[in-house]
Each structure stands twice: as C-alpha cells, then as structure tokens.
Amino acid sequence: MNQPLYIFDLDETLINADSSMLWHRFLVEKSIVTDSNFLAEDQRLMRLYAAGKLDMPAYLNFSMAPLAQLTKEQVDSLVDECIEKYIMPTVFPQAQQLLAQLKQDNITTVLISATVSFIVNKVAKQLGIEHAMGVDMLVENGSYSANILGVASYREGKVTRLESWLAAQSQVYGERYFYTDSINDLPLCLFSHYPHVVNPCPQLARYAEEKNWPQLAWS
Questions:
Q1: What is the pLDDT of residues 50-107, one digit of tens each?
Q2: If both were cysteines, with which of 41, 85, 134, 154 could 117 make a disulfide (CB 3.0 to 4.6 Å apart)?
Q3: Cβ neighbours of residue 34 under 8 Å, at least 6 residues apart?
Q4: Active site residue 181
Q5: Regarding the domain delimited by 3-216, which CATH topology (the fold level of the hierarchy) does it fall under?
Q6: Taking a C-beta distance cutoff of 8 angstroms, is the pair 9, 181 a contact?
Q7: pTM of the full predicted structure?
C-alpha cells in the first residue's frame, strides 16, 4: 500500500513570517549589513515575490552579497542563532500540532521552500521534518556564493525538485498533500492531489475558491 506524502512550504505557511526577511534583519542587527537601504530593498523585492514576479537570480545576488566575506562555517553558526532567536518563535501552533500528528503516524514529511537551503535544512530539523529542499547555493573558496547549484526550488522548480526526489526514493508514495500560502506555489498545488492553502495571498485564495481547496486560517 502506497503511503501518503505531506509537503510543506515554509514562509507564511508553517511560520507566521518570512524566514529570509528575518535573516536579513538579523544580519543588520549583527552589523554584517551596514547599508541603510538594505531592508527597504528587501521589502521591495518581497513585494515582487508576493505578486509572483520576483527574478530569483537577481534576488539572490542581493541577498548573498553581505555574506561574501564570511566563511561557510561562520554563516552556518549565524543561521543557528537566527533560527533559535527569531524563526522558531514564529511557528504556527497549528503547524506544530499537524507535524506532531504526522510524526506519530509515521507519515513522511517534506519541506520545500524558495529560501536558501542553509536556512531551510536547519529549520526542517528543528521542526522534525524528515526531508528538506531549498535553493542550494554553490560554495566557492569556502564561502556561500550567489550562484545557484542545480534547479532552484521556486515556482515550477519546486515540482522539478520534488519529482527528482520522488524518483530517487525506494518508497513509493501515493496521495500528495501540500500546504502553502503563495501563488508562486500554484504549480506544486496542481501537482499535488490535495492542496491546502494556509492564510493564502489574494491570488491563491481566488484560485482555491474556484477549485474548492481547503483554506486554513492559522494564527
């Protein structure tokens, strides 16, 4: 008997925030970013993301620039601190309850996010999610670069990454359940058997209403 698979977006879905924005604010707090316009530019780019119009390579050039002088190990240590102080406190209680129930039932869970994988992988571990996919950044000369390794887990790329992951598994999975808030995840919603929208953006809410997908109000 094929097992179900539960797939989750991260930002504004499992957490009541955007992890990349929290990370950027943390970098400012740590004085790793000193550009006074950095957070305003971050907000501008996130508005493009919300509208489904973000140029991911351009965004990554912006986001990764402050880390160019840090080693991979220094960044990873900062990520641990940021997750503990700022990201984990924003997890929706309903998300925690659902993940705990799935773990109790031995159901496989996957976190797939357009956030960089050095954040996503650590958040997944904290949440008890078994498998995680984020945007993988190429490590060059001991530091994270702005160059994407492989396919970015963004928009249609999430489907591509999930298909590759499924093909590599010895377990055959049946029905796919997917939770997200964003119109950017429409391709993965359509690839799933049971999409669930969590506090959806207006575009996704309209689509979910037409398709009669469950709409969850988490707080």
A1: 888 999 999 999 999 999 999 999 999 999 999 999 999 999 999 999 999 999 999 9
A2: 134
A3: none
A4: no
A5: Rossmann fold (3.40.50)
A6: yes
A7: 0.96
